[in-house]
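User: Predict the structure for this protein chain, please.
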Amino acid sequence: MVPALRHGDALVVRRTERGRPGAVAIVRFGDDPALYVKRLVREVDGGWWALGDNSIASGDSRTYGPARVVGRVLLRWWPRPSRVGSIVKPAGDEHAADV
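Assistant: Here is the predicted structure, written as structure tokens:
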């Protein structure tokens, strides 16, 4: 979805199966359990025609067919915070990671 969204952007999403043309949505293609962020173009038989904003590097309805809407993107944070905080490492736990 570059340039509208970048890898790592945080999104606020409303779970819904409804869409509207032009909306950015979370979708699924066929039986694939993966979630994709795509722009809805139009309703078609079997779901929505959903395209990525970067047509050169985007797997979307042109490849996978109609998509099923899982949620609609309401908001994105950009620029994303560089550091929100860190997890306090318990004494002796070298495996705890910073966030």
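Strands lie at 10-15, 24-29, 36-44, 47-51, 67-77.
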